[in-house]
């Protein structure tokens, strides 16, 4: 090319022609294209003009570049966009944008030399950048609000059900993004903000009318569908960053604004759905609300309220039934069993909801727990909830249970009982009742199955800790040991025939401390029984020297043969009753006072005893006079004529003490010790602690067993102060110090 | 006559010695007088002032023997056993009060009362009052009846309303048959800190003795 200096106008003229050709190409004129020669020429011209030393036209070229673009925009691009409207305008815009990019690309190639040297030395924007800025300032700024309005319009049309050109929208949106040149500001401020606001308004209107017209399930279906569609929309033609914001907006309008109205709808709202067991609708409700912050709380609250109300109703039912039966003894006990069974069923049902439509979410687990805690601790007709539950588990474990369950069903039910126990605050009370009832089952051979007993204790241990179950476990073990002892005893008798008492005797040896304490009186035993006792004593001394036996006759059972005139009958009675009846071997008739002297029982016990044999179902003795109750001046005659269609009958002796009171007292006492121990333990390790913290830690330490009463804790603290374990700080009366 | 130069310091020492001698003489005279008063009221056999002696003392001082100032006097003496003053205790008390006669002792009473009622002293006096009433060895609490009397004596003038109300409560409730030191001190704190009769700033979550929680509940129930 040589070092010929190119004059500006000359050079520019040449270039202008190239640009004109470029425009033709862009306009779609067929056969318009650059040959490589032409391209080279243009490039070289520019090269020369910007490298020649003088005059150097870099600056002017650079400016011309911008001018060329501007001119094109003003003359061709803008007008062509302005003359169109709506969708057509968008199409034009998209086309012109694409064209512009092509133009910039070509021009940048032509003016490329400037890019390499001139631009950086003068800290000017690069050509491509300058080109985009040009578009932005001269086209975009002019048309964007129009374009935005257009796009939004189309979106709304699509929402109403029309088909729109999604590809076009995608292109427009892409333009918004690209115009930002790396920053999302243009997109976000010019387009996204408008789009979100419009979407918000759109759904606000929809929601306002739907909430009035539609039932809750219907509304939710619509909401779910809308969210699905918006998500799809976003993925098809919006920028990915908008999806989250759009969904949140729509969720807000559809689900948050009207949340209360929706959930509280009277016949179709959350409450009604739970009542109607509408699992699918509830699942949908869960899906819709679970992503919203605290969205599930109102739903969980309704759930909790509902479950609590149902539970309370069951308790009330039981209360009413009990008052009809006048208390919970005898036939009334059935009421307690029914209640517990129904509570277990209730738990199964609503746990099903928690696991199913509420996807095992912790909020619902919590709601269920709190609901059950509300009513599980209510007492019915004077019996504490712990006692009722213990009665239920006793019924399952005993022989001839009214439940009649298979082995598997028993295990399952016991498992459920233990699960339910977590909602009871008086767990220690429950355990104590269980222990009492276990003792009765074991001693009177009412236990159904050793395996079930053991498995129950294992489960209880897992739930409440070993201190509860260690005693009960020892009791079960005692029964096994006792069997071995009995075998040894019989062997012993076999090898010592002279001390044989002549009556079959089986003895149960209980280890003191783990069994409940039983009263026994100084009954005057008949000769026959004394022999038995002596025989066993002799045997036991050979087995375990240094151990003392205390005999509890009140728990014994005796099988007697009554030689009645019609037919002899076997009577299964308590030891006390046997002692009384054997008196009649020597005489037919005895007065109350004579019996009293001979047996050496309290009047109270004696009345009970005589009542069971003369005023109850089986009248072995005839009472004179034949009144309903036993008086101290009554006389008793052996009833030779007694008979029954069975050959063997059991004559029950009802227990005196309502064990409830004693159990409650025992537990109260244990609790005092437990609180004391906990307080001392805490203070020993902390040395100095504030009152509130001490109470809090004490409650936490004991919560596995029971929920301590705050006042009770305070009282124990004061007691410990009096006993010099703790002292109040002299400066701050709210702080306690451990006294070593 | 030995000639000796007497230096001024020795004169000083001499003077001090002479002055001390007179001080000691004066002191011993005072002690004598104090002891004399003591023996006027002491029981000849036991060598202590016993309850009967205290009654006479009170009557001579023209104060009732249940008057709080008698208790204050005991406090000043740091008397250990209720109803009795030992010679040592008597000396301690009267010396501190600078009283060596009955009339001076009587005159010292108003000053004593002021001193006791000073906040810095009152708590000490208050707890002393409780301990003073523990007559048996290892006794840790006082029966309700005596506590009620003690409350009137010690706090009656300062916190009449609270004392009256609390005494009424103590007599009607059944939970407590005796009051221990912690509860006793708690009641003073109660009078001192809690606004009465609205009880607005009472918080049962704090470490107030349980009996006061119950008392507050009782008062609130009565008010409604």
TrEMBL record, chain A:
Cited InterPro entries: Cullin, Cullin-like_AB, Cullin_CS, Cullin_homology, Cullin_homology_sf, Cullin_N, Cullin_neddylation_domain, Cullin_repeat-like_dom_sf
Domain Cullin family profile, residue spans: 384-614
UniProtKB keywords: Isopeptide bond, Ubl conjugation, Ubl conjugation pathway
A GO cellular-component term linked to this record: cullin-RING ubiquitin ligase complex
GO BP of this protein: jasmonic acid mediated signaling pathway; ubiquitin-dependent protein catabolic process
Ubl conjugation as UniProt keyword: yes
GO molecular function list: ubiquitin protein ligase binding
Family: Belongs to the cullin family.
Official protein name in the record: Cullin family profile domain-containing protein
TrEMBL record, chain B:
Cross-referenced PROSITE patterns: DCUN1
Classification via InterPro entries: DCN-prot (IPR014764), DCN1-like_PONY (IPR042460), EF-hand-dom_pair (IPR011992), PONY_dom (IPR005176)
Any one GO molecular function term: ubiquitin conjugating enzyme binding
Superkingdom in the source lineage: Eukaryota
Gene Ontology cellular component annotations, sorted alphabetically: ubiquitin ligase complex
One of the GO biological process terms: protein neddylation
Residues covered by the DCUN1 domain: 29-220
Function of the protein: Neddylation of cullins play an essential role in the regulation of SCF-type complexes activity.
Protein name: Defective in cullin neddylation protein
Annotated organism of origin: Rubus argutus (Southern blackberry)
């Amino acid at each position: 090319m040589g070092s010929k200096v190119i004059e500006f106008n000359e050079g520019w003229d040449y270039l202008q022609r190239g640009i004109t050709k470029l425009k033709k190409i862009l306009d779609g004129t067929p056969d318009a294209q650059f040959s490589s020669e032409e391209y080279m020429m243009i490039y070289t011209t520019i090269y020369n003009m910007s490298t020649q030393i003088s005059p150097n036209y870099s600056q002017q070229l650079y400016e011309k570049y911008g001018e060329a673009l501007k001119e094109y925009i003003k003359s061709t691009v803008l007008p062509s966009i302005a003359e169109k409207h709506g969708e057509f305008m968008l199409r034009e815009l998209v086309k012109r944008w694409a064209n512009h990019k092509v133009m910039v690309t070509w021009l940048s190639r032509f003016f490329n030399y400037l890019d390499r040297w001139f631009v950086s030395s003068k800290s000017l924007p690069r050509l491509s950048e300058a080109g985009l800025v040009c578009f932005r300032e001269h086209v975009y700024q002019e048309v964007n609000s129009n374009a935005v309005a257009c796009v939004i319009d189309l979106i709304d049309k699509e929402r109403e059900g029309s088909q729109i050109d999604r590809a076009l929208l995608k292109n427009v949106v892409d333009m918004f993004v690209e115009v930002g040149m790396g920053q999302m500001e243009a997109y976000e401020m010019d387009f996204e903000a408008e789009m979100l606001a419009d979407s918000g308004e759109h759904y606000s209107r929809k929601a306002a009318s739907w909430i009035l017209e539609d039932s809750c399930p219907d509304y939710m279906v619509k909401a779910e569908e809308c969210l699905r569609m918006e998500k799809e929309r976003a993925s098809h033609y919006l920028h990915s960053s908008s999806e989250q914001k759009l969904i949140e907006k729509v969720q807000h309008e559809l689900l948050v604004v009207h949340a209360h109205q929706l959930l509280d709808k009277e016949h179709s709202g959350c409450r009604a759905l739970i009542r109607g067991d509408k699992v699918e609708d509830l699942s949908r409700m869960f899906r819709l609300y679970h992503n919203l912050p605290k969205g599930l709380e109102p739903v969980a609250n309704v759930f909790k309220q509902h479950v609590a109300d149902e539970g309370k109703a069951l308790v009330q039912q039981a209360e009413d039934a009990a008052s009809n039966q006048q208390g919970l003894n005898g036939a009334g006990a059935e009421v307690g069993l029914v209640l517990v069974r129904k509570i277990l069923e209730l738990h199964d049902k609503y746990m099903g909801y928690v696991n199913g439509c509420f996807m095992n979410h912790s909020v619902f687990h919590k709601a269920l727990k709190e609901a059950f805690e509300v009513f599980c601790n209510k007492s019915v007709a004077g019996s504490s909830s712990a006692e009722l539950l213990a009665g239920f588990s006793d019924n399952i474990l005993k022989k001839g249970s009214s439940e009649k369950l298979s082995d598997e069903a028993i295990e399952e039910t016991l498992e459920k009982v233990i699960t339910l126990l977590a909602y009871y605050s008086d767990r220690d009370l429950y355990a104590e009742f269980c222990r009492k009832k276990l003792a009765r089952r074991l001693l009177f051979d009412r236990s159904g199955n050793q395996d079930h007993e053991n498995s129950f204790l294992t489960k209880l241990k897992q739930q409440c800790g070993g201190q509860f179950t260690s005693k009960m476990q020892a009791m079960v073990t005692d029964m096994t040991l006792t069997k071995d002892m009995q075998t040894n005893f019989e062997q012993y008798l076999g090898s010592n025939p002279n001390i044989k008492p002549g009556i079959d005797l089986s003895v149960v040896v209980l280890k003191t401390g783990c069994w409940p304490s039983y009263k026994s009186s100084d009954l005057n035993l008949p000769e026959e029984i004394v022999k038995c006792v002596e025989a066993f004593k002799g045997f036991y001394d050979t087995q375990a020297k240094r151990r003392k036996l205390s005999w509890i006759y009140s728990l014994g059972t005796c099988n007697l043969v009554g030689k009645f005139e019609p037919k002899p009958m076997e009577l299964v009675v308590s030891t006390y009753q046997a002692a009384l009846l054997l008196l009649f071997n020597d005489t037919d008739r005895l007065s109350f006072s004579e019996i009293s002297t001979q047996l050496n029982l309290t009047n109270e016990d004696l009345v009970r005893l005589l009542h069971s044999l003369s005023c109850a179902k089986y009248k072995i003795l005839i009472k004179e006079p034949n009144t309903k109750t036993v008086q101290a001046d009554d006389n008793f005659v052996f009833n030779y004529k007694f008979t029954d269609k069975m050959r063997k009958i059991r004559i029950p002796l009802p227990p005196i003490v309502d064990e409830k009171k004693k159990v409650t007292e025992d537990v109260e006492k244990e609790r005092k010790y437990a609180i004391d121990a906990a307080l001392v333990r805490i203070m020993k390790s902390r040395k100095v602690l504030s009152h509130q913290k001490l109470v809090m830690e004490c409650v936490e330490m004991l919560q596995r067993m029971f929920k301590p009463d705050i006042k009770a804790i305070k009282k124990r603290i004061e007691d410990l102060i009096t006993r010099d374990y703790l002292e109040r700080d002299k400066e701050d009366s709210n702080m306690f110090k451990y006294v070593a | 006559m030995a000639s000796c130069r007497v230096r001024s310091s020795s004169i000083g020492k001499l003077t001090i010695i002479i002055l001390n001698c007179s001080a000691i003489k004066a002191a011993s005279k005072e002690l004598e007088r104090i002891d004399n008063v003591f023996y006027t009221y002491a029981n000849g056999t036991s060598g202590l002032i016993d309850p009967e002696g205290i009654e006479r003392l009170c009557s001579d001082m023209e104060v009732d023997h249940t008057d709080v100032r008698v208790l204050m006097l005991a406090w000043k003496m740091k008397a250990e056993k209720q109803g009795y003053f030992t010679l040592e205790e008597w000396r301690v008390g009267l010396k501190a009060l600078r009283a060596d006669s009955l009339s001076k002792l009587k005159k010292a009473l108003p000053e004593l009362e002021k001193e006791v009622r000073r906040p810095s002293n009152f708590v000490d006096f208050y707890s002393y009052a409780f301990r003073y009433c523990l007559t048996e060895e290892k006794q840790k609490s006082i029966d309700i009846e005596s506590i009620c009397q003690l409350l009137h004596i010690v706090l009656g003038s300062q916190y009449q309303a609270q004392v009256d109300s609390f005494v009424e409560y103590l007599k009607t409730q059944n939970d407590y048959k005796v009051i221990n030191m912690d509860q006793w001190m708690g009641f003073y704190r109660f009078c001192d800190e809690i606004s009465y009769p609205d009880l607005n700033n009472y918080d049962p979550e704090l470490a107030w003795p349980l009996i006061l929680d119950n008392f507050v509940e009782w008062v609130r129930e009565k008010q409604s």
